[in-house]
Structures are given as C-alpha cells and as structure tokens.
Amino acid sequence: MRVAIFGTGYVGLVTGTCLAEVGHDVVCVDIDQSKVDGLQRGIIPIYEPGLEPMVKANHASGRLAFTTDAAQAIAHGEVIFIAVGTPPDEDGSADLQYVLAVARTIGRHLARPTVVVNKSTVPVGTADKVRTAIAEELAARGQENAFDVVSNPEFLKEGDAVADCMRPDRIVIGASSAHAVTVLRRLYAPFNRNRDRVVEMDVRSAELTKYAANAMLATKISFMNEIANIAERVGADIEQVRQGIGSDPRIGWHFIYPGAGYGGSCFPKDVQALARTAAQHGHQPQLLNAVEAVNAAQKGHLFELIQRHYDRGEDEGVRGKTFAVWGLAFKPNTDDMREAPSRRVLAQLWEAGAKVQVFDPEAMAEARRIFGEREDLVFCDSAFAALHDADALVVITEWKQFRSPDFARMREALGDAVVFDGRNLYDPAEIEAAGLAYYGIGRGR
Ligand code: UGA
Q: Predicted ipTM?
C-alpha cells in the first residue's frame, strides 16, 4: 500500500520504517529540511537500536522516501499518518497546533478519498477536530472528498521501538467506518500473521486507551516508589518486597521497579494531560494527581539521601564535593534526556555547591547540548574515568554496563567511599563488604 507519514520523530520514523520493511511504499514528510537531508543520506536523528540499518536498507530499496514536500506525500498516500509532536502547554494540556497544522495541510492538498490515521498521543476528541480542520480546508476549495479519520495510538518504547513495532502486542484501531477498519487491517496484515492483534473500537475509546495504558504504568511506578519510601522508614527492603509481590500474576513483574522517578517524553506528559482532560470534563482525577505528585517528589529523593549522608559529617556537607554520575538518559538504550531524573539530581547537586563528573553510554552529546560547558561539570569517557578523583558515586540510569563494576577498584577511587544507587542495581551486602557505604531506594535494612 502507499503510505504517507507526517513527522519523522520517534513514532513517525519507526512506524514508517517498519511499514516499509514489510513491503509498503512509504513517504515520510517533515518540515525540517536538514533532518530530511540527513535521513536521505542515512543520518538518523535519534539513537534507537536496529533502526539505522533498517532505514538505510529500505531507503536504498526505494520503499522508504523522505521529503519536505507535503503535497507530493498527500498525493502518494492511500493512508496518511499524522505522527507529529504534542508537547505540553503551560497548563499540562497537550498542544495540538502541530497535529491540526498537518490536518489543514492535508485538507489543502487532498484530491481523492483517503484514510487519515492519527498516531500522535492526543486528548479524547482530537480526531473530531482533525476531521473538522480537513473538512474546512476542503470546503474552502469547493471539494467534498470522502475521508476517514482513525485513531491508531502507538505503544512503542524508546530503546525497543523497532521490536515493538515489528511485533506489536496489540494494534488498536479506533474508527467510525467499516471501510477505514478494512484499510487498516490490510495495512497491518503483515504484523498480524500468527494471531489477530487488532482491537477494534470507537475513535474516542482508542484515544483514551493510549492515555489509560501510560497512566496505568506510571501508577505502578509511583505506587512502588511510595512503598519504597515506606520500606526505607520501617526498615524493610523494597527489593525483597518486589520479589514477594511480582510473582502474583495479577500484579506482574513489569513496571514495579522503584527508582529515581519516571521520565521521558511520554509518562510525565501523558499523566498530566489526562488529568487535565479529566478536570476539563468536570472530574477531579485524584489518583492521577497523586501519581504525578509522588513522581515529582521521587525525582528529588536521591539528592535527599545524599544530603542526609553528608549532613551527618563535620564539614560543609555536599558543598565542595565531587560526584561521579553514572547514567544521564531517562532510561537505558536511549540518548533521550527529556524529563530525565538525572537533570533534577544534577541541578540539586550544583545548587548545593558540588561538582559532577558524568558518564552515559549514549547521552553524552545530548548532555553537552543541554548543559553546555560549565566549571562544575566534567564529561568523562568511561564509567571508571568518572570515578577518578570523585568522592562519591551516584547511579541514575540502569545501563547494563553499570551492573557489575569492580567494587574494590571503586572503593580505591572514591574519596568518601559511598555509593548512591538510584536504581537498586547492587547487592548492599556485597558493596558493603568491599568497604563502601551504600544507599539504595527503599532499602532501609
Ligand atoms: C512509554 C510506554 O512504556 C510505552 O508503552 C509507550 O508507547 C510510550 O511511553 C509512549 O507513550 O510513547 P517510554 O517512555 O519509552 O515508553 O519508556 P518506559 O520504558 O515506559 O519508561 C518510562 C520511565 O519509567 C523511565 O524513566 C523508566 O526509568 C521508568 N520506570 C519504568 C521505572 O522507574 N520503573 C519501572 O518499573 C519501569
């Protein structure tokens, strides 16, 4: 099938590439000329495992094209995806200007029946706005083309996006016409071979499904962070508690890891946007507000542990100390630092007069872009280089390569021999046996 995709961010680029991979003929459109030029030359603007070779192969085969020419893409697409950003407004609502701008562009150029598919995460009711925007532009040209607007939310995880896209656990299709469902079923047939993964529903339910999924996962995390904070105070170890509850299939093992708080471009934004939608419709979302508040507090928790440790000492506390920081990305296998807990921890350390020596396997360039050059920030080439001349270690992202360090070497390097483990990567007994003081999340033994 001929597919056009507006937006070459995570969602658009991964979706377009996977659709090309299974044989569709895909044109990706972006307004950013330099991004499009780069993609044509095989330069991928994001780090996503497996994506680069797939983009290059499909581009070389001619099934995946990149352009800034919206009219050409609209003429090409039997199915037209909207996969542009929906950043939060000042009040936490999703900002729809990019989605609606694409809708108007589609309306200005559409010359035959098509199915418009919204993949961006948008508040309930947005499909209706997209439909109106397209219809208005068509009417302004005296046209009356038939078109459908479908909600088809994406469930890609950064770092696993290609795998999630190639092997989806479900394909949600929210449509108001049988024709649109038939078209999307044809489009997704290659992903559906072993079993039917399509869940058909009405448009508004599909829009809400996306928020419900992310809000549920964020709720699990905030819940575990809350229990971790209780564990810390009552002298229990959250890691043992986690093992004790995860085996109940009704609870499950996923998303019950306490830590430095959830970040990224989805959970913080989506929980706030859903809370906002609820309030706008007259419902006070007490649970969602609490999920958000717990997370905001949790992002400051590592620093609290650091401060508590140093305030016990005779000297000036954290001021003048040097902290090695392992992990800057909001989670492993990505270079994305949007809403990353590391940003809060660094800001708090700097505010308290400390210096940091940072290392992240992928996010160093992004960190340089965000923080620039500053005297209290040293970019290091390796995890162990960051320990050199440092007083303490703070682990913020659970990259695999941080999991089994040489604790004896770490002990020698760290002036104050203390580790703050924001992801509970280490066994407290093992690390303490090496002569290091240990602080984890929710480990009050
Ligand atoms: C999330 C969802 O997992 C995807 O299903 C969804 O499609 C995506 O948002 C989206 O809406 O686009 P993502 O933001 O890439 O994906 O990352 P996650 O793996 O969900 O992690 C989010 C945050 O939660 C990270 O900061 C992670 O460290 C944290 N987390 C996750 C925990 O603190 N504990 C856990 O147990 C799991």
A: 0.95
